[in-house]
Structures are given as C-alpha cells and as structure tokens.
C-alpha cells in the first residue's frame, strides 16, 4: 500500500502547489510510482505547473460522482512515465467533497501507487479537512514571515485533532518546508530565521527552499524547477531524498555580504 502525503499550508501563495509538483517529479525520478492529486477545488493550478492543463478531460469530482472511472481521469506526465496527475474541478464548489468518497478514492490510489501526494487547498475549509483526514504524512509549507508561521501553527493543530490517525490514537507524521528563504533579509533581521520558525512550530525541518526567480519561468513553461540545476531545483531534490529516508545535510545559503542561515543539523 502506498503512502499518502498531504502538502499543506496555513495560507495561500506560499508555494504549496509548486512544492507538490516538484516533489512528485522527484519521487518519480527515483523510480517510484507517484500520483499527484489536486484537491484545490475551484482554484486548480497544479495542472499548469506540471504542463498538463490541455490534457484534462475528467477531474477528481467526476471520479467520485461516478461520471468516469479512475483510469479515465488519470493523466500520465509527459516526461516521467511513472508520474500521474488527477486534476481538481474548476466548476464545482469545494463543499461537494464527501469524506467517504474521498476515502474510497484514496484507498484505490494507494493500491496502485507508491506515493499519493495531495495538494491541499490553503486555509482550514472543508477541502483542507478532506485532504488531511486520510494523510500518513503532512508537509507544511511555510514562508519565514510571522503571518505564515502563525497560520501554519493553527493548521498543525487541526491535523493533530481532526485526522483519521488522531481519531484512532495515532499521529500524522509532520515536517516543515521553509520556502522562499532570502538570506539577506534574515541577516538584516527583516525575515525570520530557520531557528525562529522551527522554535515556534516545534516540528522537524525537511526542506529549505531559497527564493529563486527560476520558479516563475519554470511555472510558466510547465516544467517543474526540479528539472533544472537552479538553487530551488537542487533544494527539492534534497527534500525528495529526505522523504525517501536518506540523510542529507542542509546547505549554506549565501547573501551578497556573506553566508547566512547555516543549518548544520541533519534531517532526522
């Protein structure tokens, strides 16, 4: 049975869908069979990041409503043949999701895939709860800003209270990805440091992704940045290796005036 990983955040615009796409590609590059599911009903954009928007015929709601079967809705990635994508609906309301139907869908996916990645909608509405309820692991995307950290702290509390594992006396494994890190702002005290974020959220770090203009061009071209050797692409490769259980050191990020944010701990 596959592992369900929900990629989530406390607010929109922190790079959640970008992280989902890049991690999915990276796992597939490592020989894993992966499906990325967009649960952001009404606001999908994971399809554009993967460059698959023109291939959508059916979506996740069509599957759960019985308008098509799962194999009809799944889209095979253009470059990674072990990567598949299940799009969100743009025309339906997020409240259409039903917990039991979501469970059936995820159980079916777990039978066929090593990893089921769920791109959660931001915030704490019903779509978010459906995406975290059946999770085995949650990756919480946070930017080093007080508002993002505060909202993520609330999301972590909801995962610990409302997931299926929590209801059964267990716990969803949780890790933090700090995104859009700007070393020069950390050095000037204008952005929270890695230690600040981790002290507040009290969860282990699994990834540091620096601010990188390459992300924008990669998104526009529909080719995730992990295909490049850019700083963010290399960061996502390290995250994938940590998900796979490998110990990978955290790098030093350099500002114009020197090294900042040295993080010497290994992922545990």
TrEMBL record:
Keywords: ATP-binding, Cell cycle, Cell division, Nucleotide-binding, Septation
UniProt GO molecular function: ATP binding; ATP hydrolysis activity
Domain CobQ/CobB/MinD/ParA nucleotide binding: 5-225
Matches recorded under InterPro entries: CobQ/CobB/MinD/ParA_Nub-bd_dom, MinD, MinD_FleN, P-loop_NTPase, ParA/MinD_ATPase
Residues that bind ATP: 11-18
GO biological process: division septum assembly; negative regulation of cell division
Membrane-crossing residue ranges in chain numbering: none
This protein's record includes keyword Cell cycle: yes
CC annotations in GO: cytoplasmic side of plasma membrane; cytosol
Highest taxon listed in the record's lineage: Bacteria
Assigned protein family: Belongs to the ParA family. MinD subfamily.
Assembly and binders: Interacts with MinC and FtsZ.
Protein task: ATPase required for the correct placement of the division site. Cell division inhibitors MinC and MinD act in concert to form an inhibitor capable of blocking formation of the polar Z ring septums. Rapidly oscillates between the poles of the cell to destabilize FtsZ filaments that have formed before they mature into polar Z rings.
Protein name: Septum site-determining protein MinD
Gene: minD
